[in-house]
Write a structure and sequence with these properties.
The protein is an alpha/beta fold and 292 residues long. The chain is 45% helix and 16% strand. It has twelve helices and ten strands.
Length: 292
């Protein structure tokens, strides 16, 4: 069974490709109508698809816990978790219901909590994988422990921090899995610059970023192409535990899956560990308890 967060864009393309390959796929997202549309579209293209929808609001830790609880009641295994859904550069600072900056809370902390809650299923499944989505934006990112919630809000800086946190989480999850014998493989991936609705949804169609997305569409590779690094990490036998994959051309903006260059600020294992501990406290989860 595969669980993919996000009903559109890259998440939809991930789910469609997995369904075509015969996987049992669950699409998890906030909007039931969009979820139903995604499921229907996949079934139109793959009539025999085993695909369903689960509601989750990754900005709301209660919703994350409830979704995971439903899955643990209904399922006995989880082969693949793709932490994909996200929000990108809202023009003004927004907060999640739990009081976190929206991008940090949704892109990173919600997925951190979801992974923790689903560890019993992942651990019970031989060869399970977790793929967490990062971004080319991590090149400019840094983890500011004095301002994780971006009180001094700069949209792209907050987004870059959230995606750097995702990358570090993927690395630290693999390190801890190996050290503790959890048996779960963790990797990260990024889509380059892809033609999704992220820039239309958050900053808006009339923002500079939204207008670039609309009128310079040819600079963005198709979403199906952008999904390939994630799908490679999720399914390829050659994909390496703890690796990071992205497109192979034009400074990783587009192309086909290849090992991605890890920015220097993402390699500090002391920051991995500190971020993990802070995140457990903020999200109210404990991986050690989840895997006991």
């Amino acid at each position: 069974m595969a669980l993919v967060t996000g009903t559109g864009g890259l998440g939809f393309e991930d789910a469609l490709a997995l369904a075509r390959a015969g996987a049992d796929v669950i699409i998890a997202g906030r909007n039931p109508q969009k979820g139903a549309e995604a499921v229907a579209k996949i079934r139109t293209e793959v009539p025999a698809a085993k695909v369903g929808f689960e509601q989750i609001d990754l900005a709301d830790l209660k919703s994350v816990a409830e979704c995971a609880a439903r899955l643990k009641r209904q399922r006995r295994r989880l082969d693949l978790l793709i932490n994909n859904a996200g929000v990108m550069v809202p023009p003004t600072r927004q907060q999640t219901p739990d009081g976190f900056e929206m991008q940090f809370g949704t892109n990173y902390l919600g997925h951190f909590a979801l992974t923790a809650h689903l560890m019993p299923l992942l651990r019970s499944t031989r060869g399970s994988r977790v793929v967490t989505l990062s971004s080319v934006a991590v090149r400019q990112g840094r983890i500011d422990f004095d301002d994780l919630q971006s009180k001094s809000y700069v949209p792209m800086r907050a987004y870059s921090q959230s995606k750097l946190a995702c990358l570090m989480f993927a690395f630290e999850l693999q390190r801890r899995s190996e050290a503790e014998g959890w048996g779960v493989t963790s990797m990260a991936a990024h889509p380059g610059v892809s033609r999704t609705d992220l820039l239309h949804n958050a900053p808006g169609r009339m923002s500079a970023a939204g207008l670039a997305r609309t009128y310079l569409w040819f600079m963005f590779q198709p979403a199906a192409q952008g999904a390939l690094p994630t799908l490679y990490a999720a399914t390829a036998p050659e994909a390496r535990p703890g690796a990071y994959y992205g497109p192979n051309m034009l400074n990783e903006i587009r192309g086909y899956p290849a090992p991605s260059k890890v920015p220097p600020q993402a390699t500090d294992t002391a920051i991995w560990d500190r971020l993990w501990q802070v995140s457990e406290e903020l999200a109210g989860v404990e991986f050690a308890a989840a895997v006991a």
